[in-house]
């Protein structure tokens, strides 16, 4: 009976999730081509109520980088803003946000050589600092990917300075004010392409594909000390087909990677995960079954919910945007959902999530030339259902507060799993805030809680700026994280 109930609930919540997808929204309207990036980068980022979109656009005769933002979670959008103006060819931008800081990278031909450039806004995209050139080598530097955690900014890209294409990494520890020297991450006789980077805490995770084994395979590399030192490459795929164009997202100790792969005859979307910060890896899994080709997936994760978008369609069919979700950290996957139904190609999707709102952008030819389109799901993360282990978290977790830094309030999310020894009882949960001296400032939670996902808002309006710590205790689980109040 319980299995039947779980199956019915799964169908109900899948239908609820699908119903929460709002209509497509056209973000650009100009005679030029507006183009989102390849899947190793993200053209959409979100932070609190702010949503940031970046793309390349040739409306003025040469490709320039354009930006657009929403201040209300994607309900309405401000005017386009041109971030570059050099009459050079610029392409493949990537954007990331952390608190009120927004960061952008792209490759740029203004000096008659493709180099990586960087730009930063400290006020949610309202104003932007001057461009910063990150690479100066005579070789081509292309396809950057960007990820940020607190003040640590991480950029990876592909570059041909060594006679073949290799993966390079660069970091800033002060929000892009100064930069460390380039670090070469790969060193083999074949080409390495399309790196994608994701960071949480001090763990920096990079994935790419290369041909050192004769065909395209997915490789992974990590640093556990914020990009100072790097562990050896890990080969994640081993088949006779081509495994290419990976995208990566991390949450707590989970690392999630997707790519497209033709090992069984046509391109499908594959997924693999690590549950221990990239040390060990599960078996990869095919998550699409269409006879049409499926390409260029983009992935994001929030707690136990994993979200993937991709394009599907074998020319001359129109490519459309599809979506798939896992609510149990990638252990199982719901049925895919078709997001677009246009008369022309929908291509290069990117995905981002904040709280329960999922944001998707892509380029679309339905208007006679490529324009940027946007779609959102306002209830993308399913909440726990009591007595239904399908939707109950499988692990304890305490997420980073959001936003961080904050003023004066911030949100803290945590998860309590089903515990066999407490089948008929809740766990005593405490969530407390401490100052840098270890003094208890406030108790946010002190009660028995059933398994589920929780969120609480802490208001520090009467406290001074500074570093604070919050600690979750539940059974034998104890986790502490740092947050910054900045007034």
Overview of this structure, please?
The protein has 487 residues and is mainly beta. The chain has two domains: 376 residues, Neuraminidase (6 Propeller); 89 residues, Immunoglobulin-like, CATH 2.60.40. 4% of the residues lie in helices and 48% in strands. The protein has one helix and 36 strands.
Task: Briefly summarize what is shown.
By secondary structure, the chain is mostly beta strands. 4% of the residues lie in helices and 48% in strands. It has two domains: 2-377, Neuraminidase; 397-485, Immunoglobulin-like (Sandwich), CATH 2.60.40.1930.
First CA to last CA: what distance?
54 Å
- Quaternary structure of the protein: single chain
Q: Give the % helix.
A: under 10%
Q: Could you list the spans in which at least 5 consecutive residues all have pLDDT below 50?
A: 1-17, 383-390
Overall, the morphology is globular
**Name of the CATH first level of the largest domain:** Mainly Beta
- Please compute the radius of gyration using only Cα atoms: 22 Å
Report the strand count: 36
Describe the sheet with the most strands.
5 strands, antiparallel
Could you tell me the CATH topology label of the largest domain: Neuraminidase
Strand content: over 45%
Rounded average pLDDT:
89
Structural class: mainly beta
- Supply the CATH architecture of the largest domain: 6 Propeller
Number of helices: 1
Ordered list of secondary-structure elements with their pairings:
Elements lengths: L1 H18 L5 E2 L7 E2 L8 E4 L2 E8 L6 E7 L10 E2 L7 E9 L2 E8 L6 E7 L10 E2 L7 E9 L2 E8 L6 E7 L10 E2 L7 E9 L2 E8 L6 E7 L10 E2 L7 E9 L2 E8 L6 E7 L10 E2 L7 E9 L2 E8 L7 E7 L10 E2 L7 E9 L2 E8 L6 E7 L19 E2 L10 E8 L10 E8 L5 E10 L2 E8 L6 E9 L2 E9 L2
Antiparallel strand pairs: 1-29, 2-4, 3-4, 4-5, 5-6, 7-8, 8-9, 9-10, 11-12, 12-13, 13-14, 15-16, 16-17, 17-18, 19-20, 20-21, 21-22, 23-24, 24-25, 25-26, 27-28, 28-29, 30-31, 31-34, 32-33, 32-35, 35-36
């Amino acid at each position: 009976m319980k299995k039947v109930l779980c199956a019915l609930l799964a169908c109900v919540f899948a239908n609820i999730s699908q119903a929460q997808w709002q209509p497509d929204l056209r973000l650009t309207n100009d005679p030029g081509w507006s183009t989102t990036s390849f899947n190793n980068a993200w053209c959409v980022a979100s932070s609190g109520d702010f949503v940031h979109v970046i793309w390349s656009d040739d409306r003025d005769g040469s490709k320039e980088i354009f930006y657009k933002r929403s201040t209300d979670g994607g309900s309405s959008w401000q005017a386009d803003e041109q971030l570059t103006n050099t009459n050079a060819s610029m392409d493949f931008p990537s954007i990331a946000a952390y608190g009120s800081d927004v960061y952008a990278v792209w490759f740029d031909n203004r000096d008659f050589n493709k180099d990586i450039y960087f730009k930063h806004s400290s006020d949610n995209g309202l104003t932007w600092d001057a461009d910063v050139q990150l690479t100066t080598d005579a070789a081509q530097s292309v396809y950057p990917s960007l990820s940020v955690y607190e003040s640590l900014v991480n950029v990876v890209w592909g570059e041909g300075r060594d006679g073949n294409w290799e993966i390079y990494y660069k970091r800033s520890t002060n929000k892009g004010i100064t930069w460390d020297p380039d670090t070469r991450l790969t060193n083999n006789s074949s080409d390495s392409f399309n790196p994608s980077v994701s960071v949480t805490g001090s763990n920096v995770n990079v994935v790419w594909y290369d041909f050192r084994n004769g065909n395209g395979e997915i490789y992974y590399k990590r640093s556990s000390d914020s990009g100072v030192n790097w562990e050896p490459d890990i080969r994640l795929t081993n088949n006779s087909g081509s495994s290419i164009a990976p995208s990566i997202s991390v949450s707590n100790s989970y690392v999630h990677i997707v790519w497209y792969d033709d090992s069984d005859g046509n391109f499908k979307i594959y997924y693999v995960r690590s549950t221990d910060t990239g040390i060990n890896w599960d078996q990869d899994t095919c998550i699409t079954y269409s006879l049409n080709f499926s390409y260029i997936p983009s992935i994001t994760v929030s707690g136990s919910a994993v979200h993937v978008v991709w394009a599907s369609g074998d020319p001359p069919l129109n490519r459309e945007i599809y979506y798939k979700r896992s609510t149990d950290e990638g252990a199982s996957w719901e049925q895919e959902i078709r997001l677009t139904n246009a008369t022309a190609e929908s291509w290069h999707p990117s995905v981002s999530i904040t709280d329960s709102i999922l944001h998707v952008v892509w380029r679309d030819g339905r208007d006679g030339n490529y324009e940027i389109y946007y779609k959102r799901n306002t209830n993308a993360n399913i909440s726990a259902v009591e007595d239904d282990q399908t939707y109950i978290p499988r692990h304890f977790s305490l997420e980073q507060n959001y936003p961080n830094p904050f003023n004066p309030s911030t949100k803290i999310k945590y998860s309590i799993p089903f515990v066999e020894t407490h089948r008929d009882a809740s766990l005593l949960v405490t969530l407390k805030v401490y100052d840098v001296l270890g003094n208890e400032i406030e108790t946010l939670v002190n009660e028995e809680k059933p398994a589920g996902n929780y969120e609480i808002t802490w208001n520090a309006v009467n406290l001074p700026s500074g570093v604070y710590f919050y600690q979750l205790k539940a059974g034998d689980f104890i986790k502490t994280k740092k947050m910054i109040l900045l007034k």
